[in-house]
Amino acid sequence: MFLFIDLAEDMVMQNPPWTRDELILALDLYIKHRGSPPGKNSAAVLQLSNQLNEMGRNVECRDEDYRNTSGVYMKMMNFRSLDPLYTSTGKKGLTGIGSGDKKVWDEYNGNVMELREAANVIIKNIGVDRSIGQKNLQKYIAEAREGKVLTKIHVQRERSKSLIESKKKYVMNTCGVLECEVCGFSFHKFYGERGKNFAEVHHIKPLSYLDAEASTKIEDLAIVCSNCHRMIHSQLPWLAIQELKDLIAST
């Protein structure tokens, strides 16, 4: 005797975990209305739902809309369960928070201006080209604090052949040699002709100032060797050029 089980009801597709970008935007909306969060049918929640779905299409390359207004509202209520201004009254809020929720809350709680700045620049860059999302980030690059949207724009600038060549040409014309601005390593000096004109380029402009539509200037870029470039991006927080120089000097 065979037993057939209908698993259709158990095969409901689950929405993907919330990304840092999404959590930052949801927390920003919650903090804006901390005393009285907007309802799931409000214009504010609908607007964020649309923005998150646009982000999913452009950055994550998803074709479906998966952040509906109910989900956005529930995420705000998750943050409410972490809010001492709410829980101190004996209320609990919506439980079932994820580790990402708490991490973002801990990072930005008490830093409203920093949160607002991060949210604004993410929203400004949501419409990045879908092709950016299709490029796999190199394994040595840790996702930036501000999330995937700005990480991918940053990486795109560093991989732009025209920008790389423009920076190299400028440095060669002014300094006569391509040396890492962190450790001073020169591929040409070490490897001879095989290393001539070889170097990597690092985008030094803070992520909060990145704009997918704005042009990158020569002074926004730095010549670095492969090792130093990987150390800059290997973990959070990403290091500034001087911070890595100081780290090397202290070892």
Automatic annotation (TrEMBL):
Originating organism: Solidesulfovibrio magneticus (strain ATCC 700980 / DSM 13731 / RS-1) (Desulfovibrio magneticus)
Family annotation (InterPro entries): HNH, HNH_nuc
Molecular-function annotations in GO: endonuclease activity; nucleic acid binding; zinc ion binding
Domain of life, source organism: Bacteria
Gene3D superfamilies: 1.10.30.50
The HNH domain, residue ranges: 180-235
Name the record gives this protein: HNH domain-containing protein
CDD domains per record: HNHc (cd00085)
